[in-house]
Queue: 2 jobs
Job 1
Amino acid sequence: MNLRLSVLIQYNYIMSQIMFRSERATKDMGKMLGGEEEKDPDAERKEEERQEALRQQEEERKAKYAKMEAERESLRQGIRDKYGIKKKEEKEAEAQAAMEQASEGSLTRPKKAIPAGCGNEEEEEESIVDTVMKFLPGPLQDMFNKK
């Protein structure tokens, strides 16, 4: 009798699994054939919460790495102070200042300086024809200007 009961329980379990899977399969087939999906009424709210959680995680991650970078920079500055090393930007600024200071009292100009009138596109430049026209005699100038 005990054996029959265990067989009956197994049979019921197997049949319930078959029924559940077949019911699930028909729903999935209905979706595949173009049937309507089950719509979750809270789907938009859940999506907004998920997006907000992602934004928060991203902000926390950025804050964490900013804090780590600040700690690293303080360590770097301590090493620079200890050994008298200057930052790259400081070196470039000092070199620029030294170049400007050296060129102030000298007769030579820095290479980057462009004299007035050279290379300004705002000024109207004479064409080569106008320059040649200045050196031609009057009757020839009149003849070319008539055209």
Job 2
Amino acid sequence: MAYEEYVRKAIITGRPYDDLPEPVRQRLTQNEWRGRVRELCIQRGEAWGGSLARSACSEQDYYEQLLATYQAWARVYPYHLSDYVCRVVRVTPFRYYSEVLFLTLKEEKSYDRIPNFTAADMLRVTGIGRNEYIALMNACKAKRLLWRVNKGIARDLLPAAPLDVKMEPWWAVQVVNVGEAEFRELTPAEAQLLRQACEPVPAGSSSSSSIVAAHPVSSFDAGLLQGLYKRGLIYLEVPVAADDRISLPPLEGFVSNKTSEAGDESVDPFEPLLYSLFLANSSRLDQARLADILGVELRQLLLVTSLAIRLGFASKLSPGSSGEEPGFASKLSPGSSGEEPGGPQQQQQQQLQQQQQQQVNDVM
């Protein structure tokens, strides 16, 4: 056990194979080490260029394996890796979740086996929720013999295009690597938009809170953006900085499905941090202070907060605004704000909050 933990820490801290102690190298060949590095970096959702994975495999091989693993585990789309996954590989959230849905249908899994935040984002992107999934599964099984011999028919029943996506004015627009043939098919207005989005951002024009050097959504026509987004020609970044504060309104669209178990390697590392964010956030705290309180890296918290905002579970506060939001348990229990202290509903909320805190402790 101590040996395995040592190897894990060595990979996380970026220690090269040649710097490992001789007894460790005698037990672990360089090829085995590279395999361990690739597996752990994928499990942790690390970027290839910022981790030890760059010494273990090529960038293309790494992200292909990461996407296959994420889809098999039904994790949330890796938005934090969009610069390669979306821009280079051209795997959009819609394409990603279509594959997750297919794999889940193919194995005839219950909808409850889809992790909570994956289910919420899948509904946002594809329009497939619990009822729609059950209808899809019933439609597949209704084909009887054909379904038993060819699970691929499930693909024909999936949505053909993504839903319109919510775009906040301050979100950043990024352009993928557009091919020459694709560019020729654009309208003059679409081509102009892509050219403008690729231009450098003028100095001083971006928000002080922004960490993404890109033009905001507010700079472009909303209809053109939706069309380009659905065709996978642009993607969106949700910039969050250390001095940003967020508010957590009553949760809508939260799906209570699969419960994570401690030690499960398929658990998205963002999941426990999202629960921690929901439990500990205060509109008075900026991200830097909140990271200190939670004892996590600021970089990780910024990514998690960005995801929470994208999913609609949080909103960024403008400078100078104030207001205190209810706790996480209250957000999951609409209509409880007028209850007398100590009432049955409040006791249920406290129990739920304790359960969620225990889940965070178990996973972390």
